[in-house]
Write a structure and sequence with these properties.
By secondary structure, the protein is an alpha+beta fold. It is built from five helices and ten strands.
């Protein structure tokens, strides 16, 4: 399947390569640290494929960053004020899951992410992605089903859920309407 990259995807691909090269890591080094194949990383860096959310989380973790931190660094803008229309939306090519950094700065411990999960959408994030962060999810519109470790939560508009100990997290939208939610997180 052909995929035309937009500017934000192109910047992300270039930034992943820059993060790897800044550490003097080979593709094999990053593959080993992230559990993402060398071939996949090479294709991502060359802009031949757009990575899924799960792959980006593993790459970010290998760099010692959160997903938001990786995306913000790729955008290259760290001013204090972020306007509503400033953040670019990133779309997971496998699920249609969309996210935008509402606020994230490398120098600030709090990040806020806007997310749209389409009807039938499902995103699995590994436990390792939560090892250095704590977060709160607040549903704005629609319904969100969230599995964290062995716990299941059904969230509706206005509901909030704080994450505890790291465990695999599955976000799913089992309704016929998009679910919009906000994630606030801190690095620990």
């Amino acid at each position: 399947m052909d995929h035309l990259m937009d500017d934000s995807e192109r910047r992300l691909a270039q930034h992943i390569r820059a993060e790897r090269e800044a550490r003097n890591w080979s593709l094999a080094d990053l593959a080993e640290r992230s559990d993402v194949s060398k071939a996949a990383i090479s294709k991502i860096e060359r802009g031949e494929v757009s990575p899924t959310a799960g792959v980006l989380v593993r790459l970010a973790e290998a760099f010692g960053l959160t997903l938001a931190g990786l995306l913000v660094r790729a955008e290259g803008d760290e001013k204090r004020l972020q306007r509503a229309g400033d953040g670019a939306w990133w779309t997971d090519p496998g699920t249609g899951y969309r996210r935008r950094q509402a606020f994230a700065r490398s120098w600030h411990p709090v990040e806020i992410v806007d997310v749209e999960l389409p009807p039938g959408g499902r995103v699995v994030l590994p436990a390792s992605s939560y090892a250095r962060i704590r977060q709160v999810v607040r549903v704005v519109e629609g319904h969100l089903r969230l599995h964290e470790g062995g716990d299941l939560f059904d969230l509706g508009p206005g509901d909030c859920l704080g994450f505890g100990a790291p465990g695999e997290v599955i976000f799913s939208n089992e309704s016929d309407r998009s679910c919009f939610y906000c994630v606030a997180l801190t690095r620990s």
